[in-house]
Specification:
Layout lengths: L3 E5 L4 E10 L9 E10 L12 E7 L8 E7 L2 E7 L5 H6 L8 E3 L2 E4 L2 E2 L5 E4 L4 E4 L2 H13 L3 E4 L6 E2 L7 H5 L14
Antiparallel strand pairs: 1-2, 2-3, 3-4, 4-5, 5-6, 6-11, 7-10, 8-9, 8-12, 10-11, 12-13
Length: 189
């Protein structure tokens, strides 16, 4: 399998990954599941963990033509959400992430069912035009909004609100997140 490296801005730490498998259907309806194997490399990683591949579960919405796409990921117990306000194929992002290390801290405006939520910190990747929540609690709010069928809209500074593409619950969503203690396949302690 072909390996790609992604440098992270955490000292001498890099992330190598290979696509493991895809359960996605070409249609943008519903949640699409995708699994990637990640391996950390570099001097900032414990020697016994360098190059050890671990699966990262992902589910994403939409395709390259739909704005407001969302991707949830679960890797070694870490839960995250990514949002693309402009049209972007989230699967392509996961398969071949941009190697640019340029990141910005941002506080986009977020509304859940029309009600503004407290500003949360996000990391914005300008080249990709993708936001990533910095805290698990923010990812959990978005995840729970899917379960409750809430509408979420989000905007960057000086932009219009974009309704996020949050498909209804389906088997892919329900089975997502076992490593993070979520979903029907959750690993409970």
């Amino acid at each position: 399998m072909k390996k790609l490296l992604l440098s992270l801005s955490l000292g001498a730490l890099a992330l190598s990954f290979t696509p493991a498998s895809s359960f996605a259907v070409d249609a943008p309806a519903g949640w699409q599941a995708y699994t990637i194997n990640y391996a950390f490399t570099g001097s900032a990683v414990k020697k016994d963990m360098r190059g050890v591949y671990m699966p990262a579960e992902s589910i994403y919405s939409g395709d390259a033509t739909t704005p407001g796409n969302v991707a949830f990921t679960c890797y070694a117990g870490n839960f995250a959400v990514n949002v693309a306000l402009e049209p972007m194929d989230m699967k392509d992002l996961m398969k071949s992430p941009d190697k640019s290390t340029r990141r910005k801290a941002k506080r986009p405006d977020v509304k859940i069912n029309g009600e503004s939520i407290k500003n949360a910190d996000w990391i914005y990747m300008p080249k990709l035009k993708v936001y990533q929540a910095r805290r698990r609690t923010t990812a959990a709010k978005f995840y729970n909004s899917v379960i409750r069928k809430d509408a979420i809209s989000m905007r960057g500074k000086g932009k219009d609100f974009v309704s996020l593409n949050l498909p209804p619950l389906d088997p892919a969503f329900k089975e997502f997140g076992s490593e993070c203690g979520m979903g029907t396949l959750a690993q409970k302690n």
